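Reviewers of the previous submission asked for a worked example of the structure-prediction workflow described in the proposal, so we include one complete record here. The input consisted solely of the amino acid sequence. No template or homolog information was supplied to the procedure at any stage.
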Amino acid sequence: MMNGAIDFEWLADLSKWPCFTTCELSRPAKSLDFGCDGFTASLTDWHELLQLTRPDPTCGLVFLRGRFPDSAASILSRAQRRDDSGNKGTFGTRVMPPHPGFPDVGLGERKIHGWVNFRWPYTQYELVRRHQDSGDIVGTGSCEMISFIHEGTVFQLTRLKWGRGSSLSEYDADTTQGNSATARIRVGGTVRFGCPCSATCQGSSEEGTFTVSRTGARVYCVSDKYQTSLEVGLSIIGATELLEIQKASTGSVSGSSVDLSSELRLELPPGDVVCLVSTYTLRDKEDERDESGDVCLPNDLLDYLGVSRESINMTDRLWTALCAANYEAIEAVEFCIVGRCVEQILGVTSIPVRSPHPGDVRHPAASEIALIGNIMTYQYVDVQAVFFQIRLLAKIHHFIQTRKLEPDLLQHRRKIEDIRDDYLARIRVVIRSAMAWMFGTDLKPGRLLLAVHSEPGDYNPRLESCAAQRENITWDGTYNRGCYATLSAWYVINKCPEAITPEYIREVILPKLAVSYTLGMDRAHRDKQPTSKSNVLQWLHFSCILLLHDELRWDESELPVGIERADLDLAQVEETQERFEKHVTRLKTSPADGWSVEHEELDRVLLLAEEMSLDHTKTKRSHSLAVSRARQTRRRIQERRRTTKFNTGPKEWMKARSLSNGPWELLCLNHEAFLKVASDPDVIPARDRLFEFLLSDYTFMTSWDRAEANMIGSWWDIQPVAMISATLLDLKLEGKLQAAKPLDFPGDNHPGDPLLQSLPNIRGEAEFLDVDGENAALSRRNDQALLVRTLVRQMKALMDESSKAPALEDAVGSVKAFDWVTQKPSLVYYPDWWIQSLDDTPELFGSSQERDVGLRWALQHYLERHGAGHITRSSKYTHSNITRLLPQKDLALLDAFDFFQDGGFDFYTQRRRCKPLATRLTASGMSQAAPASVSPRHSRQPSDHPFVSEETFSSYSETLQFLNDSLVDVGAKHRLLFAHKCSPNLIGGLIYLWHPDALDAIDDHFGTTSRFTDSREKTMWTTSITVSHWSIRTCEEHRADEHRQIHRQNGDFPPENIAKLGYKSDQMHTVEEQSSTVAFTGDPSGYLWVCSVLSSATTSESIGPVIQRVMPKILKKFIHQQATARCLVFLVLLGHLCENLATEYGEVLARLDDIMEIGDRTLLEGLEDWWGTVEAINKLKKMLWGWEALRVFNDKLSSSLSQIQRAQDAMEHVIKHDATQQHVDLIQEYNSIMDEFKKRHGMLLDVHDKTQLKIKQVTGLRDGISTITNVVDTQTALADNQTTIQQGNNIRTLTYITIAYLPLGFVTGLFGIEHGTFMNDAQDWHFAVLVVIFSLATYVLAFSLDRALVQFKGKIWPDRFRKRKAAIFGTDEESVPLGTWPAKKPARSMDAEVHHQIPKGAVFGLSSVMRNYSQASLDVELMHDLSGQGRMADRVGDKMLSQDRNETSVNANDLQIKRPLTPVSPTAFTFNLENIMMVALRSDGGLVT
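From that input alone, the workflow returned the following structure tokens.
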């Protein structure tokens, strides 16, 4: 047990000690990997455990990970973020955020983060306590954490202190912080076991059985499959703390993972220190475990960590001493890179390989260590990476050995030479052990680290399973991996001979030399079409065999007992070596089809050939060839220009090897190669460009090429870091970069330095004299001449370069070069919306659910009308209510398509859809229990359907869980969500869970207008279009649709009053306003996006082939231009909608033709039934309705087309802006896609043109029918007028006859008076005279009566007429001439208007008007406007023709308008002959009616 007085004071100020190196927090991070003796651990950037590993005799290693997928994307997303929820899958010891309602402290800002001696990670945080209401910080403290591995156990030390200051020296009691604080601590977590074989299978975790037990303060968990035990322990200030398993009891547990988490609260008194020590031990099940239950720290802890000033493990002193005096910060970074890489090789990638059979030791002279290439992703051995790790160890061994180390301040405590000797001894052990493993393994990729010691008869069920899974490993089979074994042996013997002992040569190298030769010969005969890289490696392989044969004196060496000498056929080896040498001589190194990774690999081995010291061969041809090829490679690398043209997706043979052909600037090793061959002025810029790829832990991002499916996984590769570190050491040896002085300084070169002699002399040409035919001996006798010659050549090269510079600038300047720096990953690679999950990151949904959805009026209106307004007010999605908020019937409306990328650069899709809910089953036919296969979190049935089939509910549960998981864990590159119909619950899931960034687009979807938006900001690129349109379907379908949007405008088509006029259809239809929306949201580069398509115009069966067949081809073709691919995918979807909308509108037009009975029917059936007045009026009414309907459709369609055109222009602008000079294949593909879009867009344009033509056709037909009706009415009126005239003539004749008899009757009556005496004497002639006199008087009176009445009215009514005129015109004058109307504003506030109606009989006076304007509707009004200027207004249709009154005169006799009307199109007028208002002139200038 630990001493309770221990408070780990050294942890508080560890960042100030000489053993500490700070990480660069401004750079992206991955996991912090550390280890010792084959046991490794990986931490997140926030000091949470991601993985533990231990050596395993079957698969090489066994790992323990949290509950997350094995993909590199999932691991990186957790490594860069803090696990605030505790559900992301990390484990270990961590301070959790405070629970609501508890005054707990939590972790605040990370203040210090770095490495102790480049081995052990250390982090310091600020402890904060916040006010529960305001959230303000009300108290602070400190938290320091360090993790390390000792004897296979991972220790996590945590020091908590409540109060100001992070150390004892800085502490000051804080009286304002009140009483002690409490901290919530979580230990352990949900874990699972696995091996490299299972990690290669991307899928669900394997099921297994776990046995959980507890002894004292330790919890034990044993995996039966992997025979591995996990031990978890915790101690608090020396008092052992018993762990309580909260979610898993002791005993046997089945599943893919087991929960071993435990939580506790600690009291933190002000000023006191609370220390926690937690341990995690991963060991073999059969190994003896500690049953005491105590948690014990190593006795020599400070010495082991290298913190003690006397410790020999304080290697940070050694790396500091290697820097030059008064070194700059960038030089320190260079050695941090080298030191971190070396420590990673010694502690992390070195996996001891032991035999499963006790006592089986193949190499007594050296144990075996396998140097894996990647500790996190593939976790197996890459022999090429092993060689470059050994190469770095040899270089750093020589560099440290030959540097002059200046004494530091701790020299009196421990000499720095002692640290150097101990460190070099560790390096030599690893070199020998790694080479022993390479020579003792058959190096077949499928067998690397997989039970290499197992005998054929051994039965191991896990071995069989793992061997089958190893077939999925992607490896490069184009070269002989055994070549690197002989290359490593010769390189180490030549560059680091201290690591090779005679015993090692006799027991390890010599016995395998003949085997290496045999394997090389077999490969040479088997390769029919070897690659260039394979030819170079085979040439080096056989050259090294010859060199080892001569150097080790094969014929004279003594072999171990029991090993027979296998004689080498030296002549055959030389013949084979010469054959491959010819292949290398004829090698074509110029890239014809653009750059690809293959060229980088070839350049790498060609430059390596120069380092292999081939001058030791008997002939100088190999050395000359190596030097000349290296010189050509340098020139080719130096002349490499920036990318101006993108390639198409990799070819088939490249996909088989997972080789990308993207821009070369995106690969870290291409910048390393340029740094390697750079001249003196270019070294610093080249180094700075290379350091753009630097991570915070001093490793490198291997690639930024997102076209590579394993881009993220390659960030854990050790080979690129080893190559970069070796290049930095070479530049320091050459003096191009600063470093400590060599032992024999001030000499320029170390005479006996074999490593320096093998390095290329880029500044001079002396190394190439043999190739050019010069005599190397002249360099010593004629140093001055050689120097002059070298200077002249350098000056000539500079002049040639300067003369080429303008041409180069023009060549690159005329074409836009690829801006590779903009592709640099951000500090946190994956955005929040890509990693959010209902299970892992519920806190991210808290912010999205707090968005003010109520401000989206259209969306809110839709939800309110459907009785779902609560979705925007109180819906919080959790696992407990997810099935209630998203029932199965609503989820069945959604189709999810995920796009994945395989290792061969191909894209494929997976479709997820919940099966539609069948008819409700009876209780007798179905059990109510949930099926056992359903996940516990989704085990309850949907509340509205308690009885569903097991298959249907399983589909619902799997789909819901899949959608609620983060896209990074699913492994998808893109996601597309499609819904043909919407429901409020489904919309709630979209705006809160699956696509919250499309909130504004979804709001537009429920509006009534078309809209396009494209916003490309720093962190988000949003593109959306909403097309508003009309949809027609049968009334039965409309009424049966329970998901119809009742807030939309809809109605019968045609309306009831139009249908009564005649409608030749047996089925009624409904027209409804709809919208189709396509919304893309994602990162600005187009590499990650989510798309939602909401449209009733298409179906999943129609759009499915477009998504699953067309879109993956586009993404593959434009794999290096994902922004262009995103735009083209958007246009493909939009084109599909255009095609379907054209069909929809075509049906609408066809239906209108049937209603109005026009179109082809007019051609085929004629117009027989149109001539009757009643039929013509019905036709006119239907056409008036149809004309208005067409106008409404046309307005909606015109708005949609304008937005679609905007979308097309915007996408073309993005494509042209992001693209450089395009490859011809990409141009053809782009043109093909655009042609397809324009064709589909053209379909909608054709419908628009047809609609406008229909409008013109209906207008013409309507006006024609109106004309026919008016002509018929006019003819009828004329016939009636003729009858009236005839009747008038008859009446006039009868009147004349009556007038003739009237005097005669009067006179006869006069003579017939009985009482009259004056007639007694009358004679006959008196009677005749009286008749004549009275007849004349009667006729005179009859014909002069009209004039007498007119004169009488002029004398009796003048005052009355004057008053009426004054009321109209505001004047008291008796008569107002037309030319003298008052100019002032009248006293009345409103214009006076007089309408005088003319009887129907007055239609005779309009004959002249009808002759000139037979289709005009004329209303003549006398008006007086507010300005006092009178106008005679002729209102014709919708147009107003106005003339001044003095230009107008009206004859009251024949009612003929003298002023000619302005000509107007005949189709714009109709007649109204029953109500015409006229004004006439009096002879004296006044007005009469």
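Residues 800 and 942 are 78 Å apart (CA to CA). We consider this example representative of the routine output the project will generate in years two and three.
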